[in-house]
Give the backbone structure.
Amino acid sequence: MLGRKRSSSRRTHDPCAAALIEAIGAEKVQVDSAHRALASRDASIYSGGSAGPLCFPTSTADVQACVRVAAEHGRAIVPRGAGTGLAGGTVPLGEPVVISTTRMNRIVEIDTDNRVAWVEPGVVNLDLTRQLAPLGFHFAPDPSSQQVCTIGGNVANNSGGPHCLADGVTTSHVLAIEVVLSDGQVVMLGGLEADSPGYDLRGCFVGSEGLMGIATRVAVRLTPDRPAVRTLLLAFDEVRDCAAVVGAVIAEGIVPAALEMMDKNTVVAVEAFVGAGYPTDAAAVLLVEVDGLDAGVSAHAARIAEIGRAGGATSVREAADDEERALLWKGRKTAFGAIARIKPDYYLHDTVVPRGALPDMLETIHDIVERHDLMVLNVFHAGDGNLHPILAFDGREPGVYDRVHDAGDEIVKASLAVGGTLSGEHGIGVEKRDYMTLLFSAADLDHQNRLRQAFDPFCRANPGKVLPSGHSCADIQALTAAPKSVWV
Amino acid sequence: MSGAATFIEAFADEVGAEGPVAVGGGRTRWSVGGALDADARVLRAPVGIVDYQPEEMTVRVGAGTAVSDLHGVLAERRQRSALPERPGGTVGGALMVGESSRYRLGRGHVRDALLQAVYVGAEGQTVKAGGPTVKNVSGFDLCRALVGSLGTLGLVAEVILRTQPIADASEWRRADGVEPWSLPVRLATASAVLFDGTTTWVHLEGHPGDVASDAASIENEGFVRTDGPPEMPAHRWSLTPAALAGLDHDSENPYVAEVGVGTVHRTQAQPAPSLDPMALELNRRIKAQFDPTGRLNPGRLPF
Ligand SMILES: Cc1cc2nc3c(=O)[nH]c(=O)nc-3n(C[C@H](O)[C@H](O)[C@H](O)COP(=O)(O)OP(=O)(O)OC[C@H]3O[C@@H](n4cnc5c(N)ncnc54)[C@H](O)[C@@H]3O)c2cc1C
């Protein structure tokens, strides 16, 4: 191969790749190592993936063709969106055929009569909302990665975002999904009718992390923009007070549109990065947004400020206009970029605890991290108890990955111990696969596997994810390496 | 051992691992999805509120508890659930039938209310689906599979539901001869917009000032206060929201349509909708996976 230009149509010794090229065309299949290396990772720190041929279908028929070729060659398939997943969901195990949806990125139809948009899976989340803006609608789920992540990835992970507190996560905003199953058959799950007959196949597919087939077209619900919005930033001297105010607001029967918490480390990092005007002397801040109509929004904003002050807020700042609101949100939404400037690597966790457990849980996290001599930044969806402790580190430091892993392990277990759950929005993937037995019994996992097998009796779609070995139909030895071994 | 664990165990013992078995709720929707085989043993699901956490907005409750009893307790803390209330209807029944309340436009689909379910599977095993927190994506969504399943995948013993705040103000308004289609988007506080071809009913709920401003915005269209919604015919049709505009007046088969949702209440039943053949196949596979011998609620199927 020396001296030869890398090209997608380069001859390959992989008969499956050759058949894929035959089926959908050389310009839609990449087999060179550079492309495959890119497709072997997602935004998590797992690096044990190894991609087979990488396909870029442009139609449902292309996806069917890829899936059929993969099946004929006994290869698994792995759907891939933008690769921003944080649980290793799209990390390919065992050189499967990787099916990227990035060239299926058309907004097919915006149907305001049914308040729905039909989109291809590769449409970027924020692009859809931008298209909808002139019509007075938006797509409610707004993951912090919304500038790049795809609707297909959102569906597969049942993603959330800051504004999912009042409006619900992706599953509440998806009406119908066209899916290519692992045998190449196409099926429409759900529909635009009020209720679809039969089991809620649509609901089963959302959050299935690529293990039930590939979404090729999605009907998403359009949410009307609300006329009035108010955004508050509350600062606290004590992390505990800040966390307790979260519970106090909800206990009043106020469910804000968004209720996000950031600790001092995050605030300092964000300020240095974008200068959002956050108080860097605070131990923690709450970013709260209420929306709706004027009267309710004003009343709730006033009440939240009161609850905040009574709960120890040292300052309450309200965005005076859209510009200031955008700035406050810019701080929140660029937090991850800001963190990258402090340490070269980070490991972002995702667990949920009951809101009432937040004050203690944040202390527990602090203790765990201190014990492992690491740095933590907390920036998270506090309103629904969805923690995102970010362990920032330098991967070049000897032994640091073990410490990061052990601290993460303790955080997960501590979350479960207070009645929480493994993942609020990032999914299980490979990251938390082997933790599933801590949350679910053998009978529970068996039923999850039965549901998966109804969709994919052959276990060809994204094997080795979500269900721990021994509970999965894809109990293939090669795929059962413990998560630790796929670390860098 | 906690009360809940024992009542689940006792229920699992009753279900056992053999023979046709069903759960009877309030029997308010007993005929949906076919008639139960005559030889099935009919059990009652456990009754009672196990744990109510108003600050978490969650409640853990036996599936045999009447929705109205549950709502009575939640109302003391100014909360409710998205489950529809029917006289005698149980929590488990409402979830298994999966029909949303007439306030779905504002309060959401009944399936979004279920956070965790503990049920007894066809082999007599106790299975947990979902989890207790308001946000959770740990594993496949068995809860969504259960809602609307008519008890054909498992017999639900106990659930954790999401609760919602009860609004400070709510009222019904009605008007004749107005165009109802844009109201769900125009009225931010509308939790129901009903239309029978002539009259439109709007249910507004929210902050008193917001309800007042929404009400004021439609006053000049002739909307006046009214006591409540119309009598709803017994059968439910499922259409797309846009298809409602094409409903013809038929005195033999009058309707009340849920504008913005697509549910239509009519006196005659909807002709059985045809399922995509592959979707039908998936339904059959799911049933076969969960209940290979067909012992759970035999005779009934949602597809
Ligand atoms: C900085 C940052 C911030 C983030 N913030 C949030 C947040 O606020 N909320 C949140 O929920 N997540 C967040 N995430 C995680 C991630 O962005 C979401 O999970 C997102 O939905 C993944 O979309 P993707 O297109 O990148 O999917 P990928 O990472 O490519 O894939 C994710 C999973 O979906 C499957 N998949 C992708 N496309 C399809 C398809 N068409 N059919 C079937 N399966 C498919 C893959 O196999 C994989 O299992 C964040 C990530 C980063 C890096």
Observations:
- Residues 1-9, 477-488 of chain A have pLDDT under 50 and may be disordered.
- Residues 400-417 of chain A form the longest helix (18 residues).
- The pocket of flavin-adenine dinucleotide is lined by residues A 42-43, 78-86, 89-90, 101, 121, 143-145, 149-150, 152-154, 156-157, 159-161, 209-210, 214-215, 336, 425-426, 462 (CB under 6 Å).
